[in-house]
From TrEMBL:
Belongs to the NanE family. HAMAP family: ManNAc6P_epimer. This is Putative N-acetylmannosamine-6-phosphate 2-epimerase. The gene is nanE. InterPro entries: NanE. Converts N-acetylmannosamine-6-phosphate (ManNAc-6-P) to N-acetylglucosamine-6-phosphate (GlcNAc-6-P). The keyword Calcium does not apply. The keyword Isomerase applies. GO terms for molecular function: N-acylglucosamine-6-phosphate 2-epimerase activity. GO terms for biological process: carbohydrate metabolic process; N-acetylmannosamine catabolic process; N-acetylneuraminate catabolic process. Keywords: Carbohydrate metabolism, Isomerase. Its EC number is 5.1.3.9. PANTHER family: N-ACETYLMANNOSAMINE-6-PHOSPHATE 2-EPIMERASE-RELATED.
């Protein structure tokens, strides 16, 4: 484990700067500027999707860059750094750490979780295991990953389906593991990020609430529509 990197991110905010191809902010240059804004705001590291974005962000900020590649394969539901192909791309791009789906679901092309972790360890790259349950977290730790993240809680069909961050999972993982537990997933409010740290998280990742303006706008627009409808209903004369 790279003690220097973990000291840098301890009790800090990691900002996920990602935009998929169908999103308005897609593009490495845009994500590099987003990362710069996050750095100015106090982020301790950046989580980024794709080798091009990782490369551009590394040039734009001095923060560690946690890289991943989201790629769909027809024979698997796993899309966060599913195979060695994505690992090689991220290593070449200079990612400080690689985040990957560490659930035990079938991987593309016969790849296995065990072989993928072994490969990353053989390449000397740091690893962040994205998991959805305590069982997955414990198993990932047994394979020798550097840290686990609660990223996928609620995004697998067998994990708790809640709109709120999975604080019980964070607390359970912290108690069960001797390696850093990173809180990520459905954290929309600063108070929730603070609550994750209070639950024992080593650091907190926030993405959509900071870097995806279409989703932020959607949340505001929904509340405004509800308020407008309520106000209109209140003004309607009753029989």
């Amino acid at each position: 484990m790279n003690d220097s990197l973990f000291e840098q991110i301890r009790a800090g905010l990691i900002v996920s700067c990602q935009a998929l191809e169908d999103e308005p902010l897609h593009g490495a240059s845009v994500m590099a500027k987003m990362a710069q804004a996050a750095a100015v705001g106090g982020a301790v590291a950046i989580r980024a999707n794709g080798a091009d974005d990782v490369r551009a962000i590394r040039q734009a900020v001095l923060l560690p860059v946690i890289g991943l590649v989201k790629r769909d394969y027809p024979d698997s539901d796993i899309y966060i750094t599913p195979t060695r192909r994505e690992v090689d791309e991220l290593i070449e791009a200079g990612a400080s750490m690689i985040a990957f789906d560490a659930t035990r679901r079938p991987r593309p092309s016969g790849e296995t979780l065990e072989r993928l972790v072994m490969y990353m360890r053989s390449r000397g790259v740091m690893t962040m295991a994205d998991v959805s349950t305590l069982e997955e977290a414990v198993y990932a730790a047994s394979l020798g990953v550097d840290c686990v993240s609660t990223t996928l809680s609620g995004y697998t069909p067998y994990s708790p389906q809640s709109p709120e961050p999975d604080f019980p999972f964070i607390r359970e993982a912290v108690r069960a593991l001797s390696l850093p537990v990173i809180a990520e997933g459905k954290i929309w409010e600063p108070s929730q990020a603070a609550q994750a740290l209070e639950a024992g998280a080593y650091a907190v990742v926030v993405g959509s609430a900071i870097t995806r303006p279409q989703l932020i706008t959607e949340r505001y627009a929904s509340e405004v529509r509800k308020a407008a409808a309520a106000a209109q209903a209140g003004q309607t004369p009753r029989g």
